[in-house]
Task: inverse folding
């Protein structure tokens, strides 16, 4: 078994601020993902990475940067937080692109 | 454009009843359909999945029925328990792209004792 750890659990930011979310997995999975979950909108893919130092844009990449520093970690940066923004950011990993995705518990973002 | 649609958005059933959650999709190249279950404060977790070569997949009280011709599938939860109260996401993957799942908006199930 393994676990995905996301930090921080809660993040409160100011409008225009740059905010960084971190994800660590110990499954030894190759592929990692960042999703955004808004109430009533399901999960939307922001970025994914199929191996260390690889980055692929998802459907919602505008306004975000990502970094896969090593196999076990994947970071997401909100480049300029939008006022009244509220969402949950979910990190996931899978062995390969065709395999089951395992999700972390999420980071809850609130922008004042 | 929403590639995967779910209905109803929310459903309440009594304990012991069968809950039915529906899903439809647009893209005929989708060939893998997982259902994820999410409890409040947690990330989604894979519950059950089906490939387009099958029309039914069963795992305990959870069954997926799949109709390729109509591009529809449904998740049946028999003998529903209060612990099944969660949000359920239908997802689909396009053949050949590998990494990208398209998710529906989710369906919130409440099982009343």
Result:
């Amino acid at each position: 078994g393994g676990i995905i750890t996301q930090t921080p659990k809660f993040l409160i930011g100011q409008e225009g601020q740059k905010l960084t979310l971190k994800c660590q997995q110990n499954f030894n999975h190759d592929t990692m993902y960042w999703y955004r979950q808004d109430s009533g909108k399901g999960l939307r893919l922001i970025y994914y990475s199929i191996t260390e130092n690889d980055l692929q844009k998802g459907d919602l990449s505008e306004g975000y940067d990502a970094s896969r520093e090593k196999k076990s970690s994947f970071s997401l940066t909100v480049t300029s937080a939008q006022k009244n923004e509220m969402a949950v950011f979910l990190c996931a990993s899978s062995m390969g692109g065709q395999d089951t995705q395992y999700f972390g518990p999420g980071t809850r973002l609130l922008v004042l | 454009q929403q590639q995967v649609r779910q209905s109803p958005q929310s459903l309440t059933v009594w304990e012991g009843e069968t809950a039915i959650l529906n899903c439809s999709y647009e893209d005929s190249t989708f060939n893998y359909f997982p259902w994820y279950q999410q409890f409040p404060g947690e990330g989604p977790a894979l519950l059950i999945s089906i490939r387009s070569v099958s029309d039914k997949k069963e795992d305990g009280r959870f069954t997926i029925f799949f109709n390729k011709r109509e591009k529809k599938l449904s998740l049946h939860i028999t003998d529903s328990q209060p612990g099944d109260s969660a949000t359920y996401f239908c997802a689909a993957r396009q053949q050949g792209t590998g990494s990208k799942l398209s998710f529906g908006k989710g369906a919130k199930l409440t099982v009343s004792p």
Remarks:
- Chain A has one domain: 4-111.
- Chain A has a mean pLDDT of 93.
